[in-house]
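Dear colleagues,

As part of the handover before I leave the project, I'm documenting each prediction I ran so the next person doesn't have to rerun anything. This entry is a single chain, and its sequence is reproduced below.
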Amino acid sequence: DRREPMPEEIVSRILRLPGYGVYAWEAEETTGTLRLWSRQTAAEPYYVCGGCGISVRDIHSWTEREIRDLPWGTWQVWLGVEVHRVRCRRCGVRTERLPFVTGQAHSTTRREAAVARDCEAAPVSRVAAKWGLPPETVRRRDKRVLRRWAAGRRREPLRDLGVDESSLGKRDKFLTVVSDLESGEPLWVGRERKRETLDRFFAEVLPPRRRRAVRAVCVDMWEPFAQSLRAHLPHARLSYDKFPVLRHVTDALDETRRAECFRKGGHARGLLRGKRWLLLRRWADLEGDERRLVKERLALNHRLAKAHLLKEQVAHLWDYTYEGAARRVLIPWLRALRGPRVPAFQKVAQLLLRHLGGLLAYGHEKVPFGKVEAINGNIRARLRRGRGDRDHEYLLLKVQKATAERRRLLKAA
């Protein structure tokens, strides 16, 4: 081992800490560790107060602090930095703020950024093994980098809002997800799917001055969500998501198919058995042989044929460009359900009548329904990758960063 002055050329080209210079170094061959001692190089240096951020020259005391930096080849690098306690006229005696370290962290910001970049493409456990760190330390550093990234982003006006829930499992059953449908990013996540959960979003994230820009909200037909939205966004249009509506319709069709199988019995039951997915798929997505098979089965059962026709008709409700045309389609569709031919659809009709205004609001504001499901899909994928990560703030930041990076690549392409 040896300890002697470090050449200034290596300091400027390899270490690159603006305003700091290395005055001594030590290399431990057995452990592959390189220790560098550095201090500010100015003749009369200023120190930044850790509280208010102003420049201070009055020193109360100082100590030496060890900070880990990026490796140099096979060498692990440790910095011995002089950290001063300064007398600030605003904050009193405070520890100075170092430009290359966040708070009391034991790693430089560029080392934390390198760990965070690896976390974008690999699980935390694999990144921890690569850097020789505990998984919780890697997760904490990645979260710190993501927080700095989120704090430095430009905040755009929020115009189209999406509210939906994502299923988590037995322990935490639901996660409420609020999204910006223009950017396709989640804005906030909260436990459970209560009105109080969504009220907390408006209290924490969306102050009254930012609510005025919201034009429309895409939400499912969960009444607690609608109550909170009407209270906080009275001027915005509530447009009910079409995918839950279509799910209710397809469930009614499947219930009709099962009822007809048991009602007919015998040979007719065998003809309908195993045809569930053919009947539930859209007619436009069926191939020639599949269409022929569906026609033959529907010709044998008038109730099932009517249920299939109702399912196909309601799917075109969101193709119309204004409310009047959609109303002229939906009202006759609801009247067709008055008879006893398809009892499963009568429940759907009552549900749609209670939410008629939200279904027709799509004629005024074309809310991108698919983005709500895509955002929930990204969150579920992240949960599977993180094996049920319970840190919802970390989950939100990861999905936001991945979505922003994907959008940036699409713009550059």
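The mean pLDDT is 85. The first strand starts at residue 3 and ends at 4.

All the best with the project,
I.
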